[in-house]
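Sat 14:20. Reprocessing the chain from the morning session after the first attempt stalled halfway. Input below, unchanged.
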Amino acid sequence: MSGVDDLARTIKRAVDEAVERMARNAPKTYDAVYGGTDGDGVMWVTITGEEHQRPAQSSSCYASVGDVVRVTISGSRLTIDSNVTNPSAGTANVAKVDEKATVAKSTADEAMDYASEAALAAASAQSQAIYAADSAEDAMRSAVEAGGWASEAKTQAGEANRQANLATVDARRANDAAEDAIEDAQKASEGAQEAIESAGVAKDSADVAASYAKGALNGLSEIENVVGAINWISEHGTYVSQSGLPFDPSAVYYERTGEGTVESPYAYKVVEDPDPEYIDVYYRLSLDASVQQYVAAHIAVTDDGLHMIGGVDDYSALLSPDGMEVRDPSGRSVAQYGETFRVGTTSTVHLLGTSTRLSFRTAGGDIAYLGMGDDGLWRLFIDQAEVSDMIRFGNYAWVKRRNGNMTVKYIRDDA
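Finished this time. Tokens:
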């Protein structure tokens, strides 16, 4: 049995050495900190737990200094497989290789178990030694298969590198798009500056309009004063009987009704077409000197209409069949209210409103109007329009491009 024992020990030693060699050369995976590339183009990493840096022979991902990367050491070769801090396109492929390497290690472990069993069997029978030899061959085949997987891992790393190159191209395109966005933002800034200047012009126009509106309000206030004076006259004037007096065709005559009691007070009504035959039943309204002075100072009947006059520096109002016209202290017409509405010292454009249309009108007709169609919907109608940048319809817009063309663009509201 000594010969069998020697054979068994020899086979066991050979198997142990083969397994140890396979375990020593099996790829191992570590986490490391990426240290960058030196002037010769060599990449350096520091494996977790070590203090010195190691050179990397190849990389399947991009990494920045300080990123945590996954590395594989096979023999004396160190390869960067993936970026743990910022995973790249090669991460999935590296994971696949790691999975296959794990399977290879499992197969090698199984081979070690088989070899141990063969060594024990060889101690009792030569047939068991042959079985151990077969197991050793299986282990060698597994090692060869692991080498094939390593070759495939290299191929996958090349594919990851190609994907990284494509990502670089996409990054360059994104950079170009960012430069275009910066250019658009600069143009938007210029447009905003122009809008600010236009707002200044609009403010000046608004100030002028405000002064005209103030004049209109002053005119309305003066009218309220005149109306109040007329009401005061009707309440405090004295109605005098015209019985026995001669008839005056230019006078205003009143007829009286009522009993003159609390239950039936007197009431006076203007006679539209007075008859001289009824002079005895007519009355006229007499004014005291203060009322006559107030009316004479604030009301003037002109050929144009009833003119309400304020002080020397006040605006005034003129009531005529065409409406109410407001004049400034110098006599210029600054606003007119009636069928049309005008504000300003010129009358080139009027604002005309009806129940179905609001128009901007010149001597030549309407230049634009907001009108109701047969379907009951309001629409804006205009002969010509000038748009400097964009016309928007919901979330879509016609936008002017830098080359002078127009394009349809989708606009997000939360953008």
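The first strand starts at residue 28 and ends at 37.
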